[in-house]
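note to self: the first set is below, dont mix up w the second
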Amino acid sequence: MSQLHVNKRKIFNDPVYGFVSIPNEQIFDIIEHPFFQRLRRIKQLGLAHLVYPGALHTRFHHSLGAMYLMTRALSELQLKGHEISQEEQLAAETAMLLHDIGHGPYSHALEHSIVHTVNHEQISIWLMQQLNKEFDGSLQMALDIFEDKYKKHFLHKLISSQFDMDRLDYLKRDSFFTGVSEGTINYERLLNMLEIADDEPVIEYKGIYSVEKFITARRIMYWQVYLHKTVLVAEYMAIHLLKRAKWLAMNGNAPVAATPALQFFLENDVHEKHFLHDSEILKQFTLLDDYDIYTSLKLWMDHPDKILSYLSRGLVNRRLFHIDMQNKPFSQDKIETIRKIAKRKYRISDEEVGYFVFFEKTANYTYHPGTDNINILFKDGSVKDITEVSDQLNIHLLSKPTTKYFLCYPKDCQEGARM
């Protein structure tokens, strides 16, 4: 065995799963690629660390963990007699490893502010296509599985569905790093109960309570972590801040200094069609990470534009806006009163007040029936959706979307909220 081969037999120590082996030399080479190494510089939970200080783990952590769970899932299915070739296993592990390769820094803020009509899933496909070229077409099956074009549909469902290795890892990992123990799931039990029926992943009936816990944990993590009101206000401040920076870069008089990669997206109006026709844009995107955003925020703290500087100081120093959240829309009278106070206090125009007073809504399905159902396999071979067989949870209630409305504004404008 050559020294080169030995060096690619790597093991990493994951804080969630313990020692995990890299399953294949090619996967090691993909992990070493700059596209994947970029994920070390992108936090998994964006600005959630402003609420949960331990939430500093990265997309790199998560992608490796999801790949490990895919290896475990495929091994379990092989033990139960399902034929999965070595080539298919490698392709599924590769697709799982690369499922988040297209995430940008603070990705949802980025998708809503400086790039348009394109999401991270589409960018992931483009980057996988680029890697496939660089690896002489050896990633084609992984691409087919990722895009659900491969004959074994269940392999795609293990990557993207309501019960997939992505969710299994991020729930386990995010609850670990945030310390939200209510989000903990028994991933080993769930994997041990995994089966395939009619080319779909299913869970054996004796694992039903673990599925119920999985659904409950996801609900708790969404409202306690991912959609926590302070996380929301930080993310929307970032969205408005980047929109302001982009507007100034394209229309303003004062220059907006930024790192070269971020500067490119601030100064150019980038849409999906531009990604498709200009390879330079995708290259620039692969240079963007959290450090570009944060370095630029620090530069903008003293920018002559008072909106950009105010929002930048707020995020850097954690001086976040106040947020009101409720189950029904806010009255226009209340919104208008706060807008008037903000305009007066900060001496801003009608067009500018939207950066200081903004109202949105957020919705989440804990379980979405009819879309990638979580199915339970009975001993007689019958398969039923979890909503039909659960006797512990009000799954029908959880399967309805929960919508919450929120209104954000500077804390010194709270006098207008008391009405």
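second set (the one i keep forgetting abt)
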Amino acid sequence: MMKRTMIFVAAAALLAACGGENVFSEPTTTSGNGSGAGNTTGVGGETAGAGGDTSTTTVGNGGSTGVGGGTPTTAPDPELAGPYTTAVIDDTVTVPGTNAEVAIHCVYPTAGPDAGPYPVVVLGHGFNIAPSLYYSYVEHLASFGYVALTVDFPTSFVFPNHVENAQELAYGIDWAGAHATVGAVADATNAGSTGHSLGGKLAVQAATFDSRIKAVFALDPVDGSMSCSPQNCPDVTNMLPIPIPTGFIGETTDAIGFQSCAPADDNFTTFYGATSSPSLSVEVLGANHVSFVDDLQACGLSCSFCNAATAMQDDVRLLSRAMMVAFFERHLRADTRYDAYLTGAEAQMRYVDSGLATIVSK
């Protein structure tokens, strides 16, 4: 009852906003990424417009000692753009079963070290937050050889339905596998799910019923149901553990207070506490609930109700994108070199020693 009471009391503010011991593995060699493929600087490079197929290029990884050159001995740095060129497709589809019309924004590899097929990763947006505010995440994943897409499932103040939303998010995998262009390079049998806030909850929820999802990584997920019924908006932590790798990035700035955007009894720590091994939990110190979006100004009113962050937003997003790539490289491609960036020497040096985050795993 306490959990439901907290969510209901804070609903007026939240509805507008959003939906032990450190363990480190043995260090591995991670230096050096070569000159990289492509010729455009920045994460994901430039992307084509709606419906476009124009490939993009990236710089940062690849070269003679990284992915794409000879026998790779070091892992491409997940903070840098990956070695794949990419293209963009935008589409609108009706989801069977829920009959919801959803917009899909997909970034997929067009060339790189591996010809594919590539794992699929679907990303869910936060409550009342536009999917476009997470485009840097799917661009970054695609630059590492993933078919990555946002799914704009409907959210509403009236009669929300997280069960249907989770089905709509998972339908993105079906879309990727069946699309005339993307389906040729997508491996819909090897998928991951991710998302922020409500989208993070739905990413976990989708993994409880869709066996194609082999790993789930959530950005500050919130297991709240607002004023929704338990049937339509169940507590996902009660569905855990699930027999796949899980990872969570979160913050505790918004864990308490009248307008707590990620209440302590519904935040990422409750998800991690209910999981079995292997699972990862990263707390970004000084971040708030909306530090993970691409552009706070574009987010507007929806991102204005949370407590003030002290961490630099660019640092939070850089860490989150890097951890997301490293997590899926480790668990969808079984590349153990990325342990260094998740719990090992690189994670210790970059995030823990610098005071940006704490990391625990099991």
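remember for set 2: The mean pLDDT is 84.
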